[in-house]
Design a protein that fits this description.
Layout lengths: L2 E2 L6 H5 L12 H18 L9 H13 L6 H18 L2 H14 L4 H18 L11 E2 L5 E2 L8 E7 L4 H17 L4 E7 L6 H10 L6 E3 L7 H5 L4 E2 L1 E5 L5 E4 L3 H13 L2
Parallel strand pairs: 4-5, 5-6
Antiparallel strand pairs: 1-7, 2-3, 4-8, 8-9
Helix pairs in contact: 2-3, 3-4, 4-5, 7-10
Length: 272
């Protein structure tokens, strides 16, 4: 299990969040949409996800769009975006959802929702390029201690890049396996680089967690949550996300869990 940036169960709240670059609900148009979203949330909790079940709400989308016809604002674009996402991710009617997305990009080309769509497309392109056998693109940052951090600094080591967060339940569930592998193989040349997607206000919590769990490997943290600089650079939209690199920085495994991780690390270390 992973936590995703746009997991359907959290679709509504995420699409209305500032973090995803959409309307923050501070004016009449956004307030009207937020009220509609609340109704949809109620039906989703009751497992009412068909087009027929959501017909009254879909009509409200159309009424809102008609009411604000001609207004080229982010908030009006968000109405169309939300309707399109409802068709794509909840009702599962791809043709209607895609048609609405095309309308959105045609009618509101410079809006924030369209920028989100483009960012998601770019992220997918980045993720698709990070396949086994490919060289992992390096970075040049600082860790929590202010020391230089890059893949190149660990050349000759087997490295696990671990995108995670203290608020991520699946990440915490997998941590014992990561710790076990690190303790078993660190002396033989296994290193971990953590990339924390924790929020800026949770820095103290992060520091305490690292100390409590004895996570002594370097961590990159910028406090930007899903907009974490390295997460954005590599198209990460769900966590935990891991990449195992050989001694030359080539990807040899992705999202390895439990014994699979330990075995892959042992095999990579055995190659000289």
């Amino acid at each position: 299990m992973k936590i995703k940036l746009l997991a359907p169960i959290a679709l509504v709240s995420l699409l209305l969040s500032v973090q995803n670059g959409v309307a923050s609900g501070t004016n009449d148009t956004a307030a009207e949409l937020k009220s509609l979203i609340t109704k949809i949330q109620t039906k989703l909790r009751q497992n009412e996800k068909t087009e027929a079940a959501l017909a009254p709400e879909l009509k409200e989308f159309d009424d809102l769009l008609a009411e604000h016809k001609g207004e080229k604002t982010d908030d009006v674009a968000q109405i169309l975006y939300m309707k399109a996402m409802l068709y794509q991710q909840v009702i599962k009617d791809a043709p209607k959802g895609d048609a609405l997305m095309e309308q959105l990009q045609r009618d509101f080309p410079d809006s924030k929702p369209v920028k989100v769509i483009k960012q998601q497309a770019e992220s997918k392109k980045l993720r698709d390029a990070l396949v086994e056998g490919a060289k992992f693109p390096d970075f040049d940052e600082k860790d929590l201690a202010g020391k230089p951090l890059s893949i190149a600094r660990f050349k000759g080591k087997v490295v696990l890049l671990d995108f995670w967060a203290t608020w991520c339940g699946p990440c915490r569930n997998e941590l014992p396996n990561v710790l076990k592998t690190y303790e078993k193989h660190h002396a033989d040349g296994f290193e971990i680089i953590g990339i924390s997607l924790d929020r800026d206000q949770d820095r103290e919590k992060l520091d305490g967690f690292l100390k409590e769990k004895n996570m002594t490997w370097p961590q990159f943290f910028d406090g930007k949550y899903w907009q974490n600089k390295l997460a954005a650079k590599y198209g990460v939209n769900s966590i935990p996300a891991t990449y195992l690199l050989d001694r030359e920085g080539t990807i040899i495994g992705k999202d390895l869990r439990g014994e699979d991780l330990e075995q892959a690390v042992a095999k990579a270390l055995a190659k000289k």
